[in-house]
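> call design_seq(struct)
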């Protein structure tokens, strides 16, 4: 029993020793495996030990580092070497180094080389450690699904089965003071013309009128003044029918011809309303012939254009005109889609002191409701409220309905297209996209200017370089003094103005007139700022900084701001008629012009004979002459003309009649004339003119075209 007990102890000790040795061996293998895995090398023996080690409960496992996924780049066909380098964010030298290991890459050895072989692009990306995604060229790239709301565009044409009948949009056009607004007043029983300054329309108005047959017609009243060409063009583009108003006493005038041209360019049918037939000077036949001379084929002369003689003031034949409009609309079969996203056009925009930014719009498609999100040009809005032309609130606006929209974040420009979008976020994305597009366009314009100037500089530099090479570098000398780095500013007269108007269209018309200013040589006219809405403290501060004036159009300035303007010595000039505003600017320009010298002829004498007399010890030349015009006076400026050329200008020093010295000589009297130059040699036939100089204020010669 004792021997057996000793044998069991020996066996147990041996097993413990083996277990301990095995454990130490696994621990050493694990350390070696971790060390080699960090260095990126692995051994099958270590891996086997690791597998054994994983079976042990007390072992600790060390995981290798996870592999990083290669970066994905965008590539497209016909990339240049430079574009490929920019996409990888690598240098061009790196691309050329990789090309050494890429087949068929030999032809591409310049940064601007186009890689026509797409396999070269793929292999270069792979060997550079990139994954790639094939995309279209950036210039041809369509907005992807994730950013499809970057810009808003009109919907495709509607299904004809979804179209419903809509009221016609009729634009009243014609020459100024031919009765357009009076005609509209008679149709809608209002007195708009009485509220217009100067008796002329200076805004584009949109009105919905219910006719006697219960049909509704949307009328656009456009200005006839020459300064509002852009407004008339917008009215012609947004209309279905043009009613051309022509006064029977005046006939076809300048803006009548322009309205005809705009209607033809817009491919819009015309109905002629010959107005003021109640006047004694009215001549309907002559007016029709004048229209025929300008391409308007009336029905009386075998054409298709309807003509209705009317008197808008007395209401004569207005029913016939309405029937002609209804007939034309029925022939055109006007329809629109009342569902879906809204589309329209901005007719006018303005800033109201109490309600903020407003725009008059014409709905062309869909139904506009409160809460809709709209984009127009560089402005967007959430419709807070809508009003009709009478100021009544509206809950919805169907196609061909003029509506005033409240809720614009920025003021849209007249003529901008209105498109409805799904949400405020999409509207903001559209604004960002359009602003980026605008910036890119400005960058391209600046780039073109810089490239043009660079080419001009290169031409001058090459010419100078050739001259240096011909003469020699050391013999070449700069011609004339070195050019000044800072050119002295012209110190001539200058007028700085700031323009604020009630609506966007009026400001646009004023700016168009100011563009015609062409008298910079007389006085520089600078527009320092313009905008829509009442003047603000910032406007006054800006005008004061530039020593300028503020012109307001159809606006009332609060007394507080008028007091501030007086404190800052800023002149604020309100106007309600555009041509009076232009006349005021011309007067201000004229007041800044320097006085000019004006010559008034006093008399003229014909030299008959030359005498030479002695005065003390000097010999003096005297012209024996006869006064042939006006009167000769002593001490007046005079000039001597010989064969049509002036040979001397000076002063009459002395006049003698017979032997007496006199101060003046009348016409047809002979006399002796001595000028302030003693050695002047007169010849028979010379003309001596006496004149005076006076200062006269200059007038601005700017002609704005009306």
């Amino acid at each position: 029993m004792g021997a057996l007990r000793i044998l069991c102890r020996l066996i147990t000790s041996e097993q413990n020793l083996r277990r301990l040795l095995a454990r130490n061996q696994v621990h050493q293998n694990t350390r070696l495996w971790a060390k080699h895995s960090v260095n990126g090398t692995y051994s099958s023996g270590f891996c086997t030990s690791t597998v054994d080690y994983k079976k042990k409960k007390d072992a600790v496992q060390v995981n290798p580092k996870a592999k990083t996924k290669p970066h994905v780049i965008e590539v497209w066909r016909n990339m240049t070497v430079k574009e490929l380098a920019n996409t990888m964010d690598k240098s061009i030298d790196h691309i050329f180094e990789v090309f050494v290991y890429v087949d068929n890459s030999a032809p591409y050895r310049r940064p601007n080389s186009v890689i026509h072989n797409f396999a070269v692009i793929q292999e270069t990306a792979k060997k550079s450690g990139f994954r790639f995604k094939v995309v279209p060229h950036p210039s041809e790239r369509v907005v992807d699904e994730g950013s499809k709301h970057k810009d808003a565009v009109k919907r495709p044409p509607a299904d004809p089965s979804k179209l419903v009948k809509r009221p016609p949009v009729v634009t009243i056009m014609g020459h100024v003071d031919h009765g357009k607004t009076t005609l509209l007043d008679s149709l809608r029983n209002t007195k708009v013309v009485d509220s217009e300054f100067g008796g002329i329309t200076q805004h584009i108005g949109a009105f919905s009128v219910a006719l006697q047959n219960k049909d509704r017609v949307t009328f656009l009243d456009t200005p006839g003044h020459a300064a509002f060409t852009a407004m008339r063009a917008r009215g012609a583009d947004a209309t279905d029918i043009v009613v051309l108003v022509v006064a029977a006493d005046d006939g076809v005038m300048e803006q009548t011809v322009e309205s005809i041209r705009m209607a033809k360019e817009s491919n819009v049918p015309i109905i002629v309303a010959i107005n003021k037939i109640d006047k004694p000077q009215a001549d309907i036949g002559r007016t029709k012939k004048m229209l025929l001379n300008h391409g308007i084929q009336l029905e009386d002369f075998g054409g298709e254009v309807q003509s209705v003689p009317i008197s808008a003031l007395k209401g004569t034949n207005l029913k016939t005109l309405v029937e002609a409009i209804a007939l034309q609309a029925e022939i055109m079969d006007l329809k629109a889609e009342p569902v879906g996203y809204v589309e329209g056009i901005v007719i006018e925009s303005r800033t109201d002191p109490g309600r903020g930014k407003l725009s008059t719009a014409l709905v062309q498609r869909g139904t506009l409701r409160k809460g809709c999100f709209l984009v127009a040009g560089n402005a967007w809005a959430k419709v807070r409220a809508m009003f009709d032309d009478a100021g009544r609130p509206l809950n919805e606006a169907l196609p061909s309905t003029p509506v005033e929209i409240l809720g614009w974040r920025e003021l849209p420009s007249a003529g901008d297209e209105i498109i409805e979008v799904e949400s405020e976020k999409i509207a903001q994305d559209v604004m960002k996209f359009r602003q980026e597009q605008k910036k890119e366009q400005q960058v391209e314009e600046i780039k073109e200017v810089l490239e043009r100037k660079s080419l001009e500089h290169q031409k001058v530099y090459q010419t100078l370089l050739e001259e240096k090479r011909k003469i020699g570098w050391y013999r070449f000398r700069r011609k004339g003094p070195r050019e000044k780095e800072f050119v002295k500013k012209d110190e001539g007269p200058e007028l700085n103005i700031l323009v604020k108007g009630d609506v966007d269209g009026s400001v646009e018309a004023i700016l168009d007139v100011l563009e015609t200013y062409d008298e910079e040589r007389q006085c520089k006219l600078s527009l320092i700022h313009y905008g829509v809405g009442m003047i603000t403290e910032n406007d006054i501060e800006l005008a004061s900084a530039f020593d300028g004036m503020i012109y307001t159009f159809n606006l009332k300035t609060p007394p507080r701001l008028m007091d501030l303007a007086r404190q800052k010595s800023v002149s604020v000039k309100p106007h309600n008629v555009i041509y009076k505003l232009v006349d005021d600017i011309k007067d201000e320009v004229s007041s800044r012009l320097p006085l000019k010298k004006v010559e008034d002829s006093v008399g003229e004498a014909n030299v008959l004979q030359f005498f030479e007399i002695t005065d003390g010890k000097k010999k003096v030349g005297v012209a024996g002459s006869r006064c042939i015009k006006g009167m000769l006076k002593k001490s007046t400026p005079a000039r001597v003309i010989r064969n049509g050329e002036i040979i001397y200008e000076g002063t009459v020093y002395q006049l003698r009649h017979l032997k007496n010295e006199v101060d003046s000589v009348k016409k047809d009297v002979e006399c002796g004339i001595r000028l302030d130059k003693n050695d002047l040699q007169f010849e028979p036939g010379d003309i001596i003119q006496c004149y005076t100089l006076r200062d006269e204020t200059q007038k601005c010669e700017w002609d704005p075209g009306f």
